[in-house]
Design brief:
By secondary structure, the protein is α/β, with parallel strands linked by helices. Helix content is 40%, strand content 20%. The longest helix has 17 residues, at 112-128. The structure holds calcium ion.
Length: 240
């Protein structure tokens, strides 16, 4: 991120909600712009290249998932992070959005401070590097309590070696590669595909349970995101 204020585009057809988000985004030091339809959003995004998009899924013309799909298909807009705003009980849409490449989501009714925490997180993560597929051979996480040695396929928990199966290692490595990002079971399956036997949604859960048991006191770093999937969590969860 440069020193200029981040431009947040709010795509939301309910005016009160759009204004609420705008108010808090501006108070948090961002510039905000509101649009009330998917079609206008796509136009404005192409022209103005916002730093972040807050995207309601239920829109009058082109729905949020379709907006997300189109943005992620285009080289010009693929890198712009998206935080989805969804109604309660729309887990299937959340999963679809994340698989399309959305970065995070909040569920209505949301608390403004939770939404702002997510927006700041997404901006921060994107300010660092995009998709930082860890190139070094070791990932040092959780204040050095967890070390993932990629070459050796080994992890150290509190400096003690812990034996993981290939699948468990693959899942941990994948989730830890982008801390804070929710991954669906299908994303986990394709990421570790080929490195192990066939995985199904159900067996992902079984591997995660085994992985957590082996992580011992660090087990909480693999967080369940109900109805959606899993994420690697560094430290206390500031968002909920
Ligand atoms: Ca709506």
């Amino acid at each position: 991120m440069s020193n200029a204020k981040a431009l947040v585009l709010i795509v939301e057809d309910e005016p009160e909600i759009a204004e609420l988000i705008e108010f808090h985004a501006e108070r948090a030091g961002m510039r905000a712009r509101k649009v009330h339809s998917g079609r206008i959003a796509l136009d404005v995004i192409k022209r103005e290249k916002p730093d972040l998009i807050v995207l309601d899924l239920m829109l009058p013309d082109i729905d949020g998932l379709e907006v997300c799909r189109r943005l992620k298909q285009s080289d010009d807009t693929r890198m712009i992070p998206i935080v989805m705003v969804t109604a309660k009980g729309e887990e299937a849409d959340i999963v679809a959005g994340i698989e399309l490449g959305a970065d995070d989501y909040v569920t209505k009714p949301f608390s403004p401070s939770v939404l702002m925490a997510r927006l700041r997180n997404v901006l921060r993560r994107n300010g660092v590097a995009d998709e930082p597929s860890p190139t070094s051979d070791r990932m040092v996480l959780l204040e050095s309590k967890l070390v993932i040695d990629i070459d050796r396929h080994e992890i150290l928990c509190d400096a003690k070696k812990v034996d993981l199966t290939l699948t468990e290692f693959g899942i941990l490595h994948y989730l830890a590669g982008r801390p804070g990002f929710v991954r669906t079971r299908d994303q986990i399956i394709s990421a570790v595909h080929g490195k192990s036997t066939v995985l199904s949604s159900r067996t992902v859960d079984v591997h995660i349970t085994a992985l957590r048991r082996k992580l011992g006191t660090l087990a909480d770093c693999v967080e369940t995101v109900r109805g959606v999937g899993y994420r690697f969590c560094e430290g206390a969860n500031e968002e909920d």
